[in-house]
């Protein structure tokens, strides 16, 4: 991709705005209404279409935006219906359109100055924990189900926690990621989870429990080759599903996780 100074030679036009800044500056706290944010975006498009000729030629089909806020799909659905949307909250039920929209990775950068520090983890043979999850237990409907079946040390092979307690005796979040075979990426309020990229960073095979989620870079990555998908209704059979994966198959999955790491590293470095 090249950035051009002559707009007449451009194939695509970027729409620069921050979905996060919209929330921070315009959203009325606890109002649960986004109308003023949507109106702001409509005014933004009206301004662009009046000042420049390019939007009106295609109704925005050759324009694109990138937005990682949870609200971005609903806020851009009406006035950006033909625009290419790169979204982190890539939920089919919330209007993600195959062939038009694309899915972006989301993660938590622990050290902005050294984003790739402390990555990696144990080899496949040195990961004693079968599966690990820790996260806010009351976010969405999937996590309470996961915790009701597998939380509170109901099974010694599955380390499934709500909020992970910190102590000198307990492993911390990253240690679990680095020493577990599978890392559970269960949806919260929305389909996407930063844990997905974190799992890849630490060499842990992602287990995606999030129906209707479109994973990042799905156009070029065959996720079934390095991740495990578990339907929400199959949470009661989670251990059975994971234990049915042979050691040989698991090692293949983990090896491929390491291979795709570089794609997410480039995005992080950028």
Automatic annotation (TrEMBL):
The source's superkingdom equals Eukaryota
The primary site where this protein sits is Golgi
List localization entries: Golgi apparatus membrane
InterPro entries recorded: Exostosin, Exostosin_GT47
* Membrane-related topology note: Single-pass type II membrane protein
- What GO cellular component entries does it have? Golgi membrane
The protein's GO terms of the molecular function aspect are: glycosyltransferase activity
Domain called Exostosin GT47: residue spans = 7-245
Alphabetized, the UniProt keywords read: Glycosyltransferase, Golgi apparatus, Signal-anchor, Transferase, Transmembrane
Q: Which family does it belong to?
A: Belongs to the glycosyltransferase 47 family.
Please give the name of this protein.
Answer: (rape) hypothetical protein
Source organism (scientific name): Brassica napus
């Amino acid at each position: 991709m090249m950035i051009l100074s002559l707009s007449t030679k451009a194939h695509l036009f970027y729409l620069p705005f921050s979905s996060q800044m919209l929330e921070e500056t315009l959203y009325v706290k606890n109002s649960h209404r986004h109308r003023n944010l949507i109106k702001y975006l409509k005014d933004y498009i009206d301004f662009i279409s009046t000042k420049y000729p390019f939007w009106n030629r295609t109704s925005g089909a050759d324009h694109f935006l990138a937005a990682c806020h949870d609200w971005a799909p609903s806020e851009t659905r009406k006035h950006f219906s033909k625009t290419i949307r790169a979204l982190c909250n890539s939920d089919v039920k919330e209007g993600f359109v195959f062939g038009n929209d694309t899915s972006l990775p989301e993660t938590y950068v622990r050290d902005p100055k050294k984003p790739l520090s402390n990555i990696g983890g144990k080899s496949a043979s040195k990961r004693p924990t079968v599966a690990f999850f820790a996260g806010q237990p009351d976010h969405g409907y999937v996590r309470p189900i996961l915790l009701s079946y597998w939380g509170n040390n109901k099974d010694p092979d599955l380390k499934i926690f709500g909020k992970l307690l910190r102590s000198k005796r307990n492993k911390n979040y990253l240690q679990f990621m680095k020493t577990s075979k599978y890392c559970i990426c269960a949806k919260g309020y929305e389909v996407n989870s930063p844990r997905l990229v974190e799992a890849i960073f630490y060499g842990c095979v992602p287990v995606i429990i999030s129906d209707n989620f479109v994973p990042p870079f799905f156009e070029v990555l065959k996720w079934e080759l390095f991740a495990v998908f578990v339907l929400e209704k199959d949470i009661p059979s989670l251990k059975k599903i994971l234990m049915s994966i042979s050691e040989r198959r698991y090692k293949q999955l983990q090896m491929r996780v390491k291979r795709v790491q570089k794609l997410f590293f480039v995005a992080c470095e950028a």
